[in-house]
Amino acid sequence: MDKAIGVIDSGVGGLTVVREIMRQLPQERVFYFGDTARCPYGPRSTDEVRTFTLQMVSYLLRQKIKALVIACNTATAVVFDEIMQHAPIPVIGVIDPGARTAIKETKSGVIGVIGTVGTIRSRAYEKALKRIAPDVEVYSYACPDFVPLVESGIPDPAAALEIVKNSLQPLTTTSIDTLILGCTHYPLLADVIAQVMGKEVKLINSAKETARELSSVLHYRKLFTENSENVPPTHKFFVSGSSSVMKVIAQSFLHVPLDLQQVDVSNEKVCTISWTKT
Ligand code: DGL
């Protein structure tokens, strides 16, 4: 059986990236790990985010994956460089693809970024944007209320609109024409965010560009799965804690059979040097 694409996230948000991978690369198997026991990563320290992320990666590397997508902005911001340096397989994060798309889309050169406290504190998007276009003007805001809202299943749309309005208020007075949804959960709130920001502001969801980058890497490295018999790939989903939100979102959103296992990764060793030997 062909090796899978490993995808990791702090919880369910990375499924927005998985959906795009399945759409663009329907012949590829996906092994998804959502660290639901320790979600959210956004308010955690850099050390915690690093350790937890490396534990998921170590586990998935033993499942013989051929490429890894870090489908979590907070984890990408904190530990992408280290993972990329040591993992024996290609690694793709969500920040560079999102930044590239924003630069392509902006006309005014004024870009907004919203994300978790950890992502915004790292200034990872700002650095990625300025590496591509040094003159770009960037407004970054943390929206810590959005992840709990999505995780709760958005039970009250009117209350959700109020929360989004309050959080984005500082951005509505800027001249941004492009807004990066710098958190995997935010695409699930895209309609509400669009309502608050108005039609003139283009929302950037890095999932599409991340899947495109994955596709190029697989082709370039000759890792692409040729599925000449058209057999649907078998995916696997791993969670470290609760699986209930994962079940609801995965089934309504991905429409694939859910092979779901609960795995405790808290005892995984996090020595990245040892990965080269896997
Ligand atoms: N997956 C995280 C991210 O994209 C959001 C959820 C969390 O805070 O863990 O930043």
Q: Helical stretch count?
A: 11
Largest sheet: 6 strands, parallel
Question: What ranges have pLDDT less than 50 throughout 5 or more consecutive residues?
Answer: none
Identify the bound ligands.
Answer: D-glutamic acid
Radius of gyration using CA atoms only: 18 Å
What portion of the residues fall into strands of 2 or more residues?
15-25%
Distance linking N and C termini: 19 Å
CATH architecture field of the largest domain = 3-Layer(aba) Sandwich
Based on secondary structure, the structural category is: alpha/beta
CATH fold call of the largest domain: Rossmann fold
* Secondary-structure element order, N to C: EHEHEHEHEHHEHHEHEHEHE
In short:
With 278 residues, this protein is of the alpha/beta class.
Offer a few descriptive terms.
278 residues; Rossmann fold; binds D-glutamic acid
In words, what does this structure look like?
The longest helix has 17 residues, at 46-62. Helix 4 crosses helix 10 (206-220) and helix 8 (157-172) crosses helix 9 (190-197). The chain is 44% helix and 17% strand. It folds into 2 domains: 5-93 and 208-275, Rossmann fold, CATH 3.40.50.1860; 95-206, Rossmann fold, CATH 3.40.50. The protein starts with a strand and ends in a 16-residue tail after the last strand. The model has no long low-confidence stretch (mean pLDDT 92). The strands form 2 sheets. A 6-stranded parallel sheet has the order 4-3-1-2-9-10, with helices on both faces. Strands 6-5-7-8 form a 4-stranded parallel sheet, with helices on both faces. Strand 7 (178-182), helix 9 (190-197) and strand 8 form a beta-alpha-beta unit. By secondary structure, the chain is of the alpha/beta class. Bound molecules: D-glutamic acid. Residues 9-11, 13, 39-42, 72-74, 115-116, 119, 147, 183-185 line the site of D-glutamic acid (DGL).
